[in-house]
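Apologies for my clumsy wording, but are you able to produce some protein sequence, whichever is easiest, and the tokens describing how it folds?
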Amino acid sequence: MQALAKTPIDVAIVAMKSYDTMWATALIAPYLSEQGFVLSLQNCMNEETIAGVVGWGRTVGAVASFISVDLYEAGRIRRTMPKGGDKYTIFRIGEPHGRITPRVEELVKWFSGIDSAKATANLWGERWSKLVANGMGNGVSAATGLSSSDCARNDAIRRFQIRLAGEAIRVGQALGYPLEKIRGLEPERIALANEGDAAALAEVEAALKPNAGANPRADIQRPSMAQDIMKGRRTEIDAMNGFIAAKGATVGVPAPSHEKLAQIVTRVERGELKPSPALLSP
């Protein structure tokens, strides 16, 4: 870090777990240049934590949407989903205040070297939409020990995922976030599917069920939280499903499925329970 003190940082990217955000940002803060800022490239909603350390004017967010990777051995990262390219924009980069700024436009150029990227005026809506997607997948895979595809193939677990998504969507709407599509579906359709609309449920289930051969790596694909459980590491369950439940309580929109999942994953993380599909049985 002595070398960094002599070379002020213009752009610092935080790609830590959510629970490491505060100390990582505090470590970076003294080395920021006069115009320097911190970019959150993380799951969950950590911009407020970052801004609490460096200020809102030095805080930018990047949402990695519909992407999956795993650290399958030391120093080796494997991407388990195809590139979005022209079909789907992976990186959405924006300011908390919603204006498109030159620094966001520059970041879009950087990230375009990895995959498709765009500037967004809806950072909070993008963040919550990604949180919905993570909230219906990460903890479920962690609790059951199943891959993402196997979760979606199991009728009971898939219905539980739809409940998770529907609850989180209603919480996000109550918070005033303009939500984006979630797994290619309009948020309202998912919420209605959870609330007993038969046509919406059929539409959502058809979209969630994996198509044979669509992704050759699907059967090994596990979200980050499931990887954490497999490796005996701390999870982001409190910043994900626990956060959704807490926000729901704040705005008076219950999210009981998120509360249940957070409790189960916490017990699995502590070694009190072993991952099993039975943990999410009705």
Q: What stands out?
A: The chain has two domains: 2-121, 127-280. Residues 85 and 164 are 29 Å apart (CA to CA).
